[in-house]
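so my prof wants the structure for this chain in the tokens format not the other one, which i didnt know existed until like an hour ago. anyway here's the sequence
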Amino acid sequence: MHGPGSASWLLVTLCAGSGAYCLLRMRSRVEEQRRTAGGEALMGFGMAVMALPATVVQPPRGVWLGYAAVFAAAGLWMAWPALRAPRHLHHVVGALAMVYMSAAMVAAPGGHAGHGGTGVPVVTGALLLYFAGHVLLSGARLAPTGAVVAVGEGAAGEGVAGGGGGPGGWADRPELVRVCRLAMSMGMLAMLVLMS
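here's what i got, hopefully its the right format
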């Protein structure tokens, strides 16, 4: 999983920054936003730790087993809302991707994931396609369409709780939530590329 030093540090920064923003989103006035933000914060910080350069930390295999257990539990916890609202399915896929990468770290000699064989494994390829599609779709949703949204208003179904001032204001801005999810999908995509 560990790439070149500077690329790893950029990935760590991207994921930790996304996780920190998700922690701030947990102050939202909207209960669903708070619950979703908690899972996304776990994901962001988990990805940041996984992306640390091997020269900084090289945890024993038991740590990766613990990682797999934590993200398997998170995936199960996120599966219930996904059954009721399919838009939450992305979080389940993300948690399962973390379980898969953790298992790859356990199986890899010296704790460095990468199959070292002939071609990309099927699961890695499927996850690469999924996250590449999510990045493209999220980026397209961020592209300006000509309509201006006033502060405190959001796109239909985004659940924005108020203007830019209070504890829930800027943390509930739908465009910032989309940027955060886009950043984490880009991070996941980069980590999967390093695996292949």
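also thought this was worth mentioning. Confidence is low (pLDDT under 50) at residues 149-168.
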